User: Fold these one by one.
Assistant:
Number 1:
Amino acid sequence: MIRKYKNNLIFPLWLRHPFKRLKMFFGLSIVLGFATQVMADDDGRTQSAAALDIVLQEQVIRGTITDRLGNPLSGVTIVLKDTPSRGTTSDENGRYTLSVPENSVLIFSSVGHNSQEVSVGNRREINIALEDAETAMDEVVVVGYGTQKKSHLTGAVSTINIEDNLQGRAIADIGRGLQGVSPGLNVRTPSGDVGSEAPIRIRGMIGSLNGESTPLILLDNVEIPNIQMVNADDVASITVLKDAAATSIYGAKAAMGVILITTKDGAKQEDVEFSYSNNFSFQDPWKEIEMAGSAGIRYSLDTYIRNGNNPVYIPIFVSAGEESYERTLEWEAKYGGKLGVDDPWTYGRDWYFDPVLNRRFGVRIYDPVDYLLNRWAPTKQHNLSASGTSGNTTFHIGLSTMDQSGMIKPAKEDSFGRRTATIRLSNKVNDKLTLRAGTMFSQTDRRTPFIATNEQAHGFWYYMYRWHSLWPHGYDESGDPLRGTWYEAQQANTESRKTDYLNLNLGATVDFTNNWKAEIDYSYWNQEYKRTQPGTIYTARNIWVAPSPRVDESGNPVYMNRDGEVVPSTDPGASRAYDFPMESYSANTLNPNYYQRNVSNFYRHTLNAYTVYDLNLDGGHDFKFTGGINLSTYDGASQWGRIDDLIDIVNPQFNFAVGTQTTGGGASWEAQLGYFTRVNYAYKDKYLLEANLRYDGTSKFPTDLRWRWFPSFSAGWVASEEPFMQWSSSALDFFKIRGSWGTVGDQAVSSSLYLATMGSALSDWISDGRLRNYVGTPSPVYADITWQDITTLNLGIDAYFWNNRIGVVVDWYQRDTENMLVPSPGVAPTYGASAALGNFGSLRTRGWEFELTYNHRFQNGLGVNVAANISDAVTTITKYGDTRSIDSWYVGKTYGEIWGYETDRLYQLDDFVLDGNGNPTLITLTSADSEQYAGGRANELKPGPNGEKPVYQVALQNSSNFFFGPGDVKFKDLDGDGELTPGARLVDDHGDLRVIGNSTPRYTYGFRLGLDYKGVDFSMFLQGVGSRQIWRSGQLLIPGFRPSEMSMPKVIAEDYWTEDNPNAFYPAAYGNGGVSTTNNFQPQTRYLLDMSYLRVKNLTVGYSLPRSLLSKVGVSSTRIYTSLENFFTFDNLGGLPVDPEEIPGVVGEGFSGHSWAGAKAPMFKSFSFGLQLNF
Amino acid sequence: MKFQYRFKYLILLAPLFVAFSCKQDLLDRMPLTTIVDEGFWRNEADIRLYSIGFYENYFIGYNTVQVENYAPYPNSNFSDDMVSNSTQTNFENIVPASRVSTATGPGASWLVQHYGPTWNFYWVRKTNIFIDRLENVAKPNLTEEEYNHWTAVARFFRGLEYSMLVSVFGDVPYFDRVVEDTDLDYMYKDRDDRGLVMDHVYNDFEYVLANMRLDDGNQVLNRYIAAAFISRRMLFEGTFLHYHGGDGTRAEKYLALAARAAEFVMNSGEYSFSNDYKSLFASEDLSTNNEVLLYRTYDEALLVRHSVIARQNGSGPPSKAANLDFIKAFLCVDGEPWQNSTEPAASSFSIADLVASRDSRFEATFLDFANNTAPSLLLTTKHAPRDIVNYIGPGKPPVPAEYLFSVNTTDAPVIRLAEVVLNWIEAKAVLAEHYGGMAVSQAELDRSINAIRSRPLAPEAIAKGVRKTAPLSLAALPDDPGRDSDVSPLMWEIRRERRVEFYMERFRLLDLKRWKKMHYMDFSTKPDYFLGPWIDFEVEMPALIAPASIGVLQVQKENGTVVTYNGSNASDMVGFYVIRGAVNRQPFGDEVYLAPIGERQIIEYEELGYTLTQTVNWR
């Protein structure tokens, strides 16, 4: 290749040598930080035509080759069609110059793009935009232990477009980037907690009631513990294997699908390419969190009045009563919106103490969001990579760093960080042997305030929603902090949960002949998890205990008025001022007064060795034989140590504490071994067959049951290759029908299911001055426990039209989980233990997937690409003992179904027989009123307009003092028997209950539109769920869930039934005692939450700078962009502070949050911008 | 090139090498850190480890941290002694949808209104496995003495669990062997008659009394401790059957065992009333207290702590406090009820007079001045050390950290001699009154009630003028005007002694059940339930004479008139304190004696063609 560089301060010529440049670059990087580019003066021309001899009768053609986005393409091969030996390649700016005979035809080709033929004619400049090959059927797809031409695929396999979905997005991990991009791949983001992992499922939500139901995630064929470890920038391809035919070659762990990630290896050409990209984003809750102010207190007081409490006040640390409520209204009128975060909690104005009741009452309304939530938290990402080829060696080096801020405002630190470094090297020793080695290091660090005490159990965010608006934050008048979440998060030291992952792999490819090769790869990884919990001691104004009267410096009592001013005791509004004690309330052994460190190490050895033999016989018979072995062992060990009673809370360490020391630890191991073989057969690219067989063993089952054979078969028919389909060939480029069937074993269950284990630990019983050890009860087991079998039947169609511009992929599948591990049927409570698990159950998932793609570049240079997908899955129980209970897994139950009542309306005063005071009358029902509930007590109902006997809802009165009255919910007597009952809650006797919804996402869809024109690109990505319901739970959704805590969303507090608001949406106030399914809040249609949504996940506008500008500084391409993530959401939740992607109790994979829906870090939207640079 | 070939062959052979060189046991991976049933039960040490698993469940003491189950916390105390300043906790009045608990933690499975376990057979299985493994696995490795002792330990816990299940549910299915999950007929059998169940329990207890070691180490179950529990369980069952019109023959048999077991403890000479009353509940170390058969140690260094003091320290408000009905139950020091007493202050109910004129346990149980963290202004400090008084009230220093939540470390008595003697005397008295037993003698009263009354007094109490209460004399039994007509004067005094002695110790509700006196829990019957002690607000609680009290603060005069503070009648605010906000519970009936089982359980039985009968009086 002929290159000429001008002298240049930044890149002198001697540095152009790839390795020298590399070395120099890292040196520079360290000194200057990433990519400190200086525009250098450069007046050069890239290549001078004059330098070439011009052959007469030939003409010199030059031009620029770009990809569909207008980025210059280097390394494109340009040859003469007639004389393929003559040609050139494009340079790093996409330019080429070639001398050709007149009227010749040029072929432009490049890996990953469609080749294009162009007649030169008499043109001197030919600029070409090559189309991506991704729509082309001869794209090569990574599949289990090998690659496959896309047109030859017979299983359900999807590939993910890395560039479109992962690059330049303000997302923390690949998992989030995969949401909505492929049908049947379900990624859910249940919280905005930074560092939480998005749960991933393939095809439906569940594969087994006992098991992980999670897909196998392989990074270069090695199972990785967590997809978050991988830097999106290192990824070369992602393939999703969905049916058994595609996954069975991975055996034991692949029952729930496989996500294959391959990383980038060296560049294709003799050069070194650098690339640098960054992203800066700012995140904020996706919608305003609106909690109730005084209206919520009114609601709670109403619940207490209804409970017959007199006098009314709500006993809690900071109480509310009728009198304080009046003062709150006055406060709102006078001070509402005028006092801010810096204004102290002032006696008299903001709270007062009632010595008679021995209670302190709050007056001032606080919005916890102001104190606790960090707005527009920043995140930054940098990626840097170099890859290249030198002789027989290719390499890729990648570095990345990400720092994401969480949203805990008072915290010293709330963040998630990740650093990765990867190296891949490969050397082609000779024609036969290629050696490779690689390493990947990844470190994630989640840093949060170590608040402990109660917050440790429930999480910080629970406390943004738990307490009512009278609960103070900030300081009191003396400038001391007030005990509470705000203070504790501020005072807490930073807990770190750090994971180091180091992967080393070695491998070789041996090409025995050009159609027979062997691959062997050994990989070892070590994951080290380190959790450090440096405690502290809290010292604040303790509002949990009684305050004491305030005295001034000379010991005289202090009186204050309602404006918080010190006044003489004789002043009309004066009352004695009180102060809470300033004290340390975390005693020497209490949370978080300790220092603790946990360390766990996990090791995995993986060996993959297989051989592939291609046999191409005359007449179009193509065979491929694959056989190999897969071995994986996993060992883990952990230990922790703790010391109580810190003497240094600024720098807590083991050495700086004087209390009790405790320690513990554990160890585990498991192993899988499998032998596999595969045969592929293709006849004239038209008839395709594939068969897999795997023999698998796992350590999880007893010796005699651990080995199993798992077969799978698939076939495809490329109808468009048939002569009789010629008629359609003008429009239809490709049409394939495929089908597959296969069985994979699932062993993703606990290791000791077949062993009657006896837990052992220290008890809390002390004798002779020490804690006594004990050994627990043996667990009930089935000794003959074995694999769960997951069988998938898949039918699919792939079709491409109009020069592959439009692609359609349709799949239908049925996945049966047989021998599912479920509790042995029919075990009564008298058994005395949870039933042992055995292979007694089955379930079936049926679903379909549809994918549509459209890619086209118009003559004027406008490129359009569209990708749309939608899928659905329904899981039903097909075997589960004889149970018929709707609360259990009866046969025929749809996974996720919600049983409930149909709501009629709210009762009004008119419905009841009223006494002289206008109150409903409580009667004891006779058998004439209700045959079934005679003897029960209820408010007397009037007969219907035509004298119909009223239906009493005694069965739904779950609290001893709850009787349905005005403003309460009236349900429908669906079975018309004159009683409102749940029946026996059996499938064949469920009274007035019916299935009212389903909590699994149905009709999940994604839609992407990309446009580019002359360097400007725009993309929009929408994602949504067509149908999903959940039943309300917890304080954010159930009105009156725990009225003593009084917190509730504004929309509830401002719209509940009272005599003055008879058309309210929510029923009359009542305290439900912390239960989400009682009294007025029986699961029912009226209050079922519609969780369907459409979310604009991403909007991006980018601009690629013109090359003419860039080439002067030796840069081959630069793109700047800005994007909005999660910015617009269309949901049906009204103003409830819950995200439509909410999964109650789940924060992310491996993390569980508070069981209340929504009581976790708010989901966020973000605004970002960034730069992508290649040079 | 040679190298290259070598390499090629090496790679070719590698999979085979791996396939055949793997250790045979690559996949044999037994748990590394877990004990497995098979291979356990090797010797007495193993068996002892298993037995420790029962201790925290049955020997709760003050429980741990803030768990109120079975422990003396005022908030969940459910009796006629205490009242809250809101609606009183209602009795369950609806059959629950399900009554199954799979909780296996100590004391985790309990029903507050029965002070007993819920429908949970975890502990039955645990004991049956214990007995089975002793018999079928461990026996060859044990001496006869060891075998007998450990079988007695296992049978003791089984008897204890079943007697508690019976006290909650009445009839329960009895399983004397481990239920196999394949044996549905056995698993799904209907409830057995409580008499039949308790006969099994009786047999277990007889075995225990014959075979358990007399001493097996400090704070370890032995025959005396077992006997004390046996007297408790047998007294419950015997009197329950008697007062509820059950099988008289069985009642007599159980009461006889109650008396015999108690007597075994009393006759041992190991235990005596050596220390003052408060030291039983508020001592850091109970090892030297001869009254205590078994106690639970709490230790800061070992992180085993409770929160009982935290509800009695004047800063963590208890939601319930003693009412006037309970105050009136205390005898005056002359051994007479207040109506009959000749003590000068007998008719006074001001706290100061009560301290000086009433049974010494009043002083040891309550704070000796009014405190408004208690709903009745009478703060229980029974479990708090005496120095707590230095931290309660205005102007006092803050409560020290060790008396705050979750960090209290006073030892808890698990079972003590006072209960044994009171079980004994009551069993004797019922046998005498109804089953032809020998009449209770003065000597027997002296060994029981009078022995308790002659406990040493604390010097701090003596300094306040507290005196010992006169002994109970058969010849001059008090004639309490408030006595129920169906209870004999002697029995009335035995019951009073229990009420005063066991205040807040989780006995009162169970006593009301077995005596068939649950109607005492209906607070509409007596105004005293909603009143506190006699208070002179101007003197005792001047802080409450404040504008905020206007229209709120109330006292009741002796004649029943209620005076409400109006801002100018401070001097008239003298009388029984009217507890603010206290409201009676919902009406209830005889169903409250036993707990219902869940509707779901009944249906589950039906589904499989079996029957599970609902508890009597429930539908």
Number 2:
Amino acid sequence: MKKNILYFLLSISIILLVIVFIIIANRNFDSYVIRILNLCAIYIILGVSLNLINGFTGQFSLGHAGFMAIGAYLSALLYMSPELKEVNFFIVPLIMPFRVIQLPFFVAVIFAGLFSALIGFLIGIPCLRLKGDYLAIVTFGFSEIIRVIFNNLQNVTNGPIGLKGLPTYTNLWWSFGIAILTVLVVKNLINSSYGRALKSIRENETAAEAMGVNLFFHKSLAFAIGAFFAGLGGALLGSFIMTIDPNTFSFLLTFQLIVIVIVGGLGSITGTVISAIIITVLMETLRSVEAPMNIFGLHVPGIPGMRMLVFAILLMTVVLFFKKGLMGKNEWSWDGLLKKYFPDNER
Amino acid sequence: MTFNVLLQNLSNGISLGFLFALIAIGYSMVYGILNLINFAHGDIFMMATFFVYYAIALFSIPWGLAFFVGILLTVLLGISVDRFAYRPLRNSPRISCLCSAIGMSFLLENFAIVVFGGRPKSFFRPEIFTKMYTIFNVRIHSVSIVTPVIAILALLVLTYIIYRTKIGLAMRAISRDFDTANLMGININKTIAFTFAIGSGLAAIGAILWALRYPQIYPYMGIFPGWRAFAAAIMGGIGSIRGATLGGFLVGLLSIMIVVFLPALAGYKDAFIFIGVIIVLLFKPKGLFGEE
């Protein structure tokens, strides 16, 4: 009993540390660093939710960008002011219920998450009969269908022009708050009986079913929860980058998330969190590769696209040589940490 | 709509269908043997057009030879993609192969952006391939006539290789049972490299015909033809040559006919293709011609 209370207190203290860090960051860091921190937190949300589907349940989904698009658009339509909507929808007016309502940011984000989860559940009904690669194809197809529909449904999404000038509600409190929430929910989920069922589906679907695991229910559960957090992440991202159009949520975005999950290790929350931070920071620092530079007096003009090339090479290196990612399936835990530093202290 | 307009669109749809079939076969063959979605296939397709473009623009090789060189280089590219990205992962879980394939696709795209530049280039079209012929009031582009001829020739050669030669027998054996084939003394790596060579060669032929039809080439040009061809391969039953051809036809005709019959929904063309794929998979999880 004592152990649990100790771990609980330690976890609380980590959260308090994050809060202190945010306060310090808000006071001292410039807006560029704060932007990167925000992005880190958003990618943690998205990466952990994708890891729940791909890593813990073993269902290879390529549809995360679709859920994010739903979250970003629905929340934006709910929290934008009617005047702003009128400015945005200058070609085709917005359909009725959305034209007049304006909700607080938090409510809009929650709605976006719930709707995205609903869509995730509905998509799951037909798709989850398929396995492996076929599931990957169908989920990819789903995210493309979402993109095509958003490109064409002008009276709801404003078509390819997208929504511009979204108010920036996303700040460190929102992004890190939801990131912590995501990690806590997913961690508690996978340590529960549901989580063990999910992992058993990953290891062997037939054996899991024979042991009485309801495949359909558990797969839909993973999909719906993953989609919920993808919706939240999409909503935060939309308000963060202030401009969304359907092509923001292309396959490239899903690809980045898959990179994060693979580099961190499929099936490790800690790994995903670490790799989300590393990759976000790396993507920013790699911008210097594209800038013009002087090497030993030799002037090299900036090469556009170099950043993504380096990024792709890094990914290939990780996939080919570090097949398990940073953490494999391991988690960082208080237990492991205490055992490492106090090996003889049997608690 | 008059009968002529219908014929016009039908001819477009059929030649587009052959193009998709050529690309789809590459996906289908690799999946049949390795159980791997070769995401890089669309980008190999893109590289082929750039090889031809540079062979003509930089080395001013005559176009016939340039097409040949382009196909050859693409075959080499296909083999090296297999060698460097897929062969080290033969015994790894499928998910790492899939990630490697996605990584390879982005590597090729970004390589093309860095080396060739992101701006679209115009593909050289020889005189013969710009002519229009009028048959029974139907205007047919000469590429639309050449495409089916070349595609049928390529398919015949392919069928011969797969069903009448020893290496074809090896390919069929591997796709039936990877481990047993290995035990029977079939050189797995050589056969897989050969499969990649054939798939990339067909993709290169498709790419050249595509570029003659739509003469604008850019690093991301492989994505959409690639995905549509992929949809075609799945619809027809992945792993089956017959299925890939039929699927290519379906996708080609579907993408033209939706624009003709339902112009209001033309923007949703890709959505319809993917909805078609999902419906086919729900009723026949292995595709139309897949083995049960």
